[in-house]
Design a protein that fits this description.
mainly alpha
Length: 76
């Protein structure tokens, strides 16, 4: 998102790497490499699939609405 808004590719890549360290499961859900559960998880654990699922279920529309954002993630 930083790259799309500010155009600073190096800074955006750095921020993306930090996000991946926080939860490596978000990108596979956003890009469709992994299937989201049908229902939100009952409990959320930091850095695990439940946290990623809730994030994507809540914010997927923002990614869909931001042209090019999902394409940037497909290499990860």
């Amino acid at each position: 998102m930083y790259y799309l808004k500010k155009g600073n590719k190096a800074k955006a890549k750095s921020q993306l790497q930090e996000a991946i360290k926080s939860n490596k499961h978000v990108i596979p859900y956003l890009t469709g490499k992994e299937r989201l559960p049908k229902n939100p998880p009952e409990y959320i654990g930091f850095g695990d699939t439940s946290e990623a699922a809730v994030y994507v279920m809540t914010n997927n529309d923002l990614w869909d609405e931001t042209e090019g954002s999902l394409e940037l993630l497909k290499g990860y």
